[in-house]
Amino acid sequence: MGLIIGLTGGIGSGKTAASDWFAQQGITVVDADVVAREIVAPGEPALSDIRQAFGNWVLQPDGSLDRAALRQHIFSHPDARTMLEQITHPRIRQRIISQLQHATSPYVMLVSPLLIESRQHELVNRVLLVDVPEHLQLSRASLRDSQSSEAIAKIMQVQMPRLQRQTHADDIVVNDGDLTHLYSQLMPLHQQYLALSNTI
Ligand code: ATP
């Protein structure tokens, strides 16, 4: 496998804004959130394992996973969360590896909000952090999701603290300006990754 860059950051930090820019440069982007949804699609073995483990209530009438019901259930049942993760995490990891292997661009990017927490950073050569001051995280995420800043703050509280994330990063962009400011920080990194990809 060639060079793999892991891109991470907290809620509303600008991961999608950054990874869309890399995709526009022709870089293949593997999105861990998309993979997590793919592996529980109807017909996938993980979905039948989840149904067997939890019961028929996890399915909606159309046979797809009732994500909201399951989310609520694991919120109040820590053991259920562990069981769910035992079913999903190995499959997510396998599919991520497979998608990374099939990438044809000079280097490939793995975007994951839980890159470090779920040890997906072990799959990458470098970690790029999209860092953002907390007040901007709050305002941008609540605007995007039409949620109160209190609701976003709750999510931020259970995510890895900003300083801890920074210690795991090889490269950091600070998304505290407009998108032009963000892109101007991404261009030199893209050049650096292209150069690095020739040495791997
Ligand atoms: P999540 O993990 O919650 O999905 P994310 O890290 O992918 O979030 P984005 O969706 O890229 O974050 O950004 C959050 C919101 O902030 C979006 O509505 C996006 O358009 C906006 N945004 C991102 N960067 C900037 C910026 N530099 N200036 C203004 N708005 C921005």
Automatic annotation (TrEMBL):
Q: Name one GO biological process term.
A: coenzyme A biosynthetic process
GO CC term, one of those recorded: cytoplasm
The places in or outside the cell where this protein is found are: Cytoplasm
The main location is cytoplasm
Which biological pathway?
Cofactor biosynthesis; coenzyme A biosynthesis; CoA from (R)-pantothenate: step 5/5
Question: Which residues are recorded as binding ATP?
Answer: G12, S13, G14, K15, T16, A17
What the entry lists under InterPro entries is as follows: Depp_CoAkinase, P-loop_NTPase
Report the superkingdom from the record: Bacteria
A GO molecular function annotation here is:
ATP binding
Keyword annotations:
ATP-binding, Coenzyme A biosynthesis, Cytoplasm, Kinase, Nucleotide-binding, Transferase
Catalysed reaction(s) here are: 3'-dephospho-CoA + ATP = ADP + CoA + H(+)
EC class: transferase
Similarity-based family:
Belongs to the CoaE family.
**Purpose:** Catalyzes the phosphorylation of the 3'-hydroxyl group of dephosphocoenzyme A to form coenzyme A.
Designated name of the protein: Dephospho-CoA kinase
Native source species: Alkanindiges illinoisensis
Taxonomic classification: Bacteria, Pseudomonadati, Pseudomonadota, Gammaproteobacteria, Moraxellales
